[in-house]
Amino acid sequence: MNWIDTIIQGILLGGLYALFAAGLALVFGIMRLVNLAHGDLIVLAAFLILLLVSALGLNPFIATAAALPVMFVLGWAMQFLVLNRTLGNDILPPLLVTFGLSVVIQNGLLEGFSADSRRISAGALETASLQIGPISIGTMPLLTFLSAVGVIVALNLIFYRTSLGRAFRATSDDSATAGLMGIRAERIFATATGLAMMVVTIAALYLGTRANFDPTMGPARLIYAFEAVIIGGLGSFWGTLAGGIIIGVAQTVGATINPEWQILAGHIAFLLVLLVRPRGLFPRAVD
Amino acid sequence: MALLETRGLTAFYGDFQALFGVDIALDEGETVAVIGANGAGKSTLLRSISGLIRNVPGQIRFDGREIGGLAAPDVLQLGIAMVPEGRRLFPSLSVEENLLIGRYGRVGNGAWSLDAIYDLFPVLKERRHQPGTALSGGQQQMVAIGRGLMSNPRVLLCDEVSLGLAPVVVRDIYAAFPKIRATGASIVIIEQDIGQALKVADRVYCMMEGRVTLSGTPATLSREDIHAAYFGAHAR
Ligand SMILES: Nc1ncnc2c1ncn2[C@@H]1O[C@H](COP(=O)(O)OP(=O)(O)OP(=O)(O)O)[C@@H](O)[C@H]1O
Ligand SMILES: [Mg+2]
């Protein structure tokens, strides 16, 4: 029973990693931009939620709903005003600029919130759990996983059922020809990053309620996000969830064997998948 | 006054000059063909008009406005759509999605809709859920033309729609042009096949090395004149 329990915990943890990763996959898929500040933006969103909870006394879920449009606008502006200028044939400028952004965000948060670690309180939900037969499932981990599934369903609907989604895919295929269709790539990119920041905000809620966070922990979240995206293979958002689950399960199984192996087991699983499937589980058809 | 005209149009790729003062005009409802050998600058002319290349604003005029400096989405919004060389369908989009995206920036008012395109090219309806790039060359060209029409443009720019297609397929595609004209659209066609160009166009321009070397109606142009304008005077 212990093992089943461990694997279920791992799958649910994978939901959190999928939430970290989905925004990264969205942005990279559309504009080939690797955002090194992604993890720091998650932490930034967590502080925003914390601020809304502590200053206005909001319930964390309401605070997250309020943070969503703020983060969309922030992402839109960041892409339109800064990151769009770095896009081109050279892959170095976006890396340098987002690395710089990462440093700026970390230091800004240190300045504003100090290095103390914080936590967003979800009240009674934190300890609540569901008993299914002999297995007990924490309500927050379950909500995290269901949110990840919800986010992926929503992203798929946007991508494959809306005019905006067609514009995302067309711009990603060939932005010059997309321009002939009246599609303004700069705005499409800004909208994509805005959406990614909404996903980041949802990820931040669960990051902040699950454990303590502090201004410097962004880059470590970025690594899990990267690994999930790469295992997933960029061909589908579901791949990102699969990637997150693989890392999550490897971590909980590793930790059960020896608590010191938790992080390492996740990275080893990542390398093993890459060894077998170098292009990830669900590679893109066109590249 | 012409609906669309270029006056002394120059165009550059970096330091390389591709057009040296091109003057062409297109009247409302007219079909004009531009012919010329490889590298003459025909595609550069259409890329300039459509906004893929930025030019001096006053060198291109549309409906009384200077549009030479506009970007492609702005030009489309004014009602000039382009069927680009090599079709350039979006591989991630199905046939129907490729058509639908043609009206992303402009819906216009006019006869063209998904159903009207499927009436024009019935084979596309059967294949509408397949990826655009899974189709034959001729069918892909139909999608590219349909995509251009979806915005109900006032001017349709077509760059070598017969490129690489078998003669029977070319005939099918050109059979659509009278129907497109009947909706009132003005058309610029780039064509390497002189016979085809003379058949479809009200007027013809011949380009060579970035300049217009000859223009006139098909009835007034002799084979010799066209030959000279196409390959240079030394071929005479
Ligand atoms: N992207 C580019 N960069 C540099 N030079 C270019 C570019 N595109 C075209 N040229 C040059 O500009 C000139 C005109 O090219 P253009 O494509 O307009 O010719 P074209 O008449 O359309 O030829 P074709 O019949 O082969 O399509 C040629 O000398 C070509 O080499
Ligand atoms: Mg050409």
Automatic annotation (TrEMBL), chain B:
Species this chain originates from: Shinella sedimenti
PANTHER family linked: HIGH-AFFINITY BRANCHED-CHAIN AMINO ACID TRANSPORT ATP-BINDING PROTEIN LIVF
Keyword ATP-binding: yes
SMART domains referenced in this protein's UniProt entry, alphabetically: AAA
Keyword Nucleotidyltransferase: no
InterPro entries listed in its UniProt record: AAA+_ATPase (IPR003593), ABC_transporter-like_ATP-bd (IPR003439), ABC_transporter-like_CS (IPR017871), BCAA_Transport_ATP-bd_LivF (IPR052156), P-loop_NTPase (IPR027417)
Secretion signal span: none
Family: Belongs to the ABC transporter superfamily.
Protein name: ABC transporter ATP-binding protein
Species lineage: Bacteria, Pseudomonadati, Pseudomonadota, Alphaproteobacteria, Hyphomicrobiales
Domain ABC transporter: 4-234
Gene3D superfamilies per UniProt: P-loop containing nucleotide triphosphate hydrolases
Molecular-function GO terms, alphabetical: ATP binding
Keywords for this protein: Amino-acid transport, ATP-binding, Nucleotide-binding, Transport
